[in-house]
Amino acid sequence: MTAVTDPVTGLRMVELSHRWGYNAPTWPGFDDLKIHKIVNHAKHGVMTQIYKGTMHVSTHVNAPLHMVPAAQGVGQIPLEQFFGNGVVLDIPKQKWEYVTVADLEAATPEIRRGDIVVIVTGWHRRYADSKEYFGYAPGLSAEAAQWLVARGVKLVAVDTAAVDHPLATSLAPHRNGPQIKYLAPEYFAETGRDVLEDFPDWNIAHKALLAAGIPTIENVGGDVDTVLGKRCTFHAMPWRWPEGDACVIRFVAMLDPDGKCRIESGNTQ
Fold first, then answer.
1. What is the pLDDT at residue 74?
2. Confidence band (pLDDT; 50, 70, 90) for 38?
3. Which of 29, 26, 46, 27 is nearest to 37 (CA)?
4. Spatial distance between the Cα atoms of 168 and 183, rounded to a whole number of angstroms
5. Any residues with CB less than 8 A from the CB of 20 and at least 6 apart, and which?
6. SS (HEC) of 122-191
7. Confidence of residue 155 (pLDDT cuts 50, 70, 90)
8. Pairing label, strands 98-99, 155-158
9. Residues 173-232: pLDDT tens digits?
C-alpha cells in the first residue's frame, strides 16, 4: 500500500488528491489556472506567487451554495462534515455509463448512515486535459443521488470531473453549453437518440445532494486504488471561506491497522 505511516501511532495516511497547479486539467469552458511569481529568489531573495482561477480545478469540494441560492458556503459547513469514517467503493464504469442504485446497494463495504462515501469508477486513471476524461465519463444517476440522501450520508466523493453524467451538464446542450460541441452529435451517431431526450435535466444528481446539505468532492485521485473496498477515516478540510462555492482540498484517507491510535483529550493534567 502506498501510504505515509506515522512512526508513533502507526496511523497510515493515503493521498486521494490530484496535483493542483499550473496546467491542471480545467473544466471545458473555464479559464486555465494562472500562476506567476511577483518576486523571485534570484532578484529579491524571496519568492511569492499569485494565482487567478476557479476553485473547480483538481480535487475540490463543492458547497451547497454552488447549486442552491443562499445555502451554506464552504466555510459555513460544520468541520465534522469534512472528517469522519466512510467507505471507498469499487464501482467500475465505462463510457457514458451510470452509477445506479443497484451499484450502491451491491457495493462493499456497506454504506452506513453518516458515512463519507467515495465512489471510484476507475476514471481517475484517465485524468487529463482530454475529451475522454471530461466528455466520456460515467456519472451518478438521479435515483442514486436520492438513495444516498435517504441513506443519510454526510459527504459524497467521485473520481470523475463531475458528480453528474457529462451529458447532463454544460458539456452537452444544457446551460451555457455545449462546451464540447461534438458530444451530442457523437451520442446520436452511437445511439440514434437525442441527448436532451435522454438527459433532460441539468446537474440533477448534483443538485439533489447539495440541496440536502451534502457536500460533494470531484476529481478524486492520488493513490485511491490502494484503499478500494476499505473502510477508512477521511480528512477533506476546505478553507474557512464563508462565501465559497467550492474549494481545492487535500483529500486524505487514514487507516489505523493496529487500532492503537488515540486522540489527545486536551486536558492539562
1. 97
2. very high
3. 46
4. 11
5. 57, 58, 59, 248
6. CHHHHCCCCHHHHHCCCEECHHHHHHHHHHCCCEEEECCCCCCCHHHCCCCCCCCCCCCCCHHHHHHHHH
7. very high
8. unpaired
9. 999 999 999 999 999 999 999 999 999 999 999 999 999 999 999 999 999 999 999 999
CA angle (188 as vertex; 185, 191 as ends), nearest 5 = 150
Q: Cell for 222?
A: 492520488
Q: Could you tell me the three cell numbers for 226?
A: 490502494
Domains of the chain: 10-164+203-255 (3.50.30.50)
pLDDT for the residue 190: 96
Burial of 192 per CB tally in 10 Å (0-12, 13-18, 19+): exposed
